[in-house]
């Protein structure tokens, strides 16, 4: 009998959407037969003796939150090679223009990753922005980019983009594709 793969799913969230996505990814991995720990990013996250690591973060000003970047630095220093990343950002990739914006966001976020770090894949989920206090022109511009003022869902046609393949049909399928990487 093959050993059960051990996976750590860790995340940095600002408003809770990233935590929800991380929990969904962890659930899919558990259903696939993995032993999964899912916890907020921080120094307490145990990266020892795991087969794979999933790290996610909300994106603010085209950058990951510091706690998630700290975990990536630890992962890079350990030489761990089975790492999957996800970001929760603004553009909801619905058409050609918003797919372009989402791809650019993934590229810019990736530039902030530690030098030499390479994730197996990096997915972008459309995020939310609190619209209270945003002027009308800002709300309109935000909507024109395809973003929504509600939490993202991991379901059909909802906000998952791969920088080279475009939007995925189903976020749960994309999370399940991670199972192919786990030894």
Q: Characteristics of this structure?
A:
6-stranded mixed β-sheet, Rossmann fold, alpha/beta, two-stranded antiparallel sheet, 183 residues, elongated
Structure description:
This protein has helices at residues 17-31, 66-78, 96-111, 136-144, 171-177; strands at residues 6-12, 35-40, 52-60, 63-64, 83-89, 121-126, 161-162, 166-167. The chain is of the alpha/beta class and 183 residues long. It has a single domain (6-176), classed as Rossmann fold (3-Layer(aba) Sandwich). Strands 1, 2, 3, 4, 5 and 6 form a 6-stranded mixed beta sheet that branches. A two-stranded antiparallel ribbon has the order 7-8. Strand 7 and strand 8 form a beta hairpin. It is elongated, with a radius of gyration of 16 Å. Residues 150-174 have low confidence and may be disordered.
Secondary structure: elements and pairs:
Blueprint: E1 6-12, H1 17-31, E2 35-40, E3 52-60, E4 63-64, H2 66-78, E5 83-89, H3 96-111, E6 121-126, H4 136-144, E7 161-162, E8 166-167, H5 171-177
If you average the pLDDT, what whole number results? 77
Do you know the CATH architecture? Answer: 3-Layer(aba) Sandwich
If helices are DSSP runs of H or I spanning 4 or more residues, what is the number of helices? 5
The CATH superfamily bears the name: Flavodoxin domain
- Count up the domains: 1
Uncertain runs are 150-174
- Secondary structure: number of strands: 8
Proportion of residues in extended strands: 15-25%
How much helicity do the residues have?
25-40%
- CATH topology, anyone? Rossmann fold
What is the CATH C-level name? Alpha Beta
Please describe the biggest sheet, giving its number of strands, its sense, and whether it closes into a barrel: 6 strands, mixed
From N to C, what is the helix and strand string? Answer: EHEEEHEHEHEEH
Q: Determine the N-to-C terminus distance.
A: 13 Å
Overall geometry? elongated
User: Radius of gyration in whole Å, from Cα?
Assistant: 16 Å
Structural class by sheet pairing and helices: alpha/beta
């Amino acid at each position: 009998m093959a050993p059960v793969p051990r996976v750590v799913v860790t995340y940095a969230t600002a408003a809770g959407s990233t935590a929800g996505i991380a929990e969904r990814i962890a659930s899919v991995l558990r259903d696939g037969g993995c032993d999964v720990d899912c916890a907020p990013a921080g120094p307490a996250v145990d990266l020892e003796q795991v087969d794979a690591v999933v790290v996610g973060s909300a994106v603010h000003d085209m950058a990951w939150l510091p706690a998630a970047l700290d975990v990536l630095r630890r992962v890079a220093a350990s030489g761990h090679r089975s790492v999957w990343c996800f970001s929760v950002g603004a553009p909801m990739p619905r058409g050609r223009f918003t797919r372009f914006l989402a791809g650019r966001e993934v590229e810019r976020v990736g530039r902030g990753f530690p030098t030499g770090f390479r994730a197996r894949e990096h997915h972008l989920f459309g995020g939310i922005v609190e619209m209270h206090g945003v002027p009308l022109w800002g709300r309109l511009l935000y909507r024109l980019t395809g973003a929504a003022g509600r939490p993202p869902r991991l379901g059909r046609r909802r906000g998952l983009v791969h920088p080279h393949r475009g939007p995925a049909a189903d976020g749960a399928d994309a999370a399940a594709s991670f199972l192919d990487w786990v030894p």
